[in-house]
UniProtKB/TrEMBL annotation:
The keyword DNA repair does not apply. Transmembrane segments: none annotated. This is Putative hydroxypyruvate isomerase. It comes from Salmonella enterica I. One of its GO terms (molecular function) is hydroxypyruvate isomerase activity. The keyword Isomerase applies. Keywords: Isomerase, Pyruvate. Residues 21-155 form the Xylose isomerase-like TIM barrel domain. It holds the Pfam family AP_endonuc_2. One of its GO terms (biological process) is glyoxylate metabolic process.
Length: 168
């Protein structure tokens, strides 16, 4: 039987974010996901999950400075410190919210930039994340974003991200 999670960043947007948990439960969902929890204390989100008997399926590391065009920092050369701070914060939230998996936001590769350098930076940060999350029996995910959704994102298709899957 399929299981579905309501994406609270995209659904029930007529209500403030913190009220969307109730809306999801009332609609029959048993799990939720959202893009970014960081505007709220983990305890506030945990209270909503508990109050409405919901599990958290997934959330993302920080997008960074979206006003400057960032959409993740794990692939950005020279931003390793920021990326690892994002990873550490996401792990704190994952532990507090009992979330089993987190999407590591790669980032946007500027036109004309050396894509290999961005991929190498991402792999280094992905290894860091994998070690940190595995120590707590949590999973990390990568996600492709189509050019129509986020032009220049490091992974534009499932094929472009497939080489980063842990083997064995």
């Amino acid at each position: 039987m399929p299981r579905f999670a309501a994406n609270l960043s995209m659904m029930f947007t007529e209500a403030p974010f913190i009220e969307r948990f109730a809306a999801a439960a009332e609609a029959g969902f048993q799990a939720v996901e959202f893009l970014f929890p960081y505007d709220f204390a983990a305890s506030e989100i945990k209270a909503q999950l508990s109050r409405h008997n919901l599990t958290l399926a997934l959330f993302n590391t920080s997008a960074g400075d979206t006003a400057a065009g960032e959409w993740g920092r794990a692939a950005l050369p020279g931003r390793e410190h920021d990326a690892r701070a994002d990873i550490d914060l996401a792990l704190e939230y994952a532990l507090a919210l009992e979330c089993e998996q987190v999407h590591i936001m790669a980032g946007v590769v500027p036109d004309g930039a050396d894509g290999a350098r961005y991929r190498a930076t991402f792999i280094d940060n992905l290894r860091y994340a994998a070690d940190r999350f595995a120590a707590h029996d949590k999973r990390i995910l990568i996600e492709a974003l189509s050019p129509g959704v986020k032009p220049g994102y490091l992974f534009s298709s499932h094929i472009s991200g497939a080489g980063h899957r842990r083997r064995g």
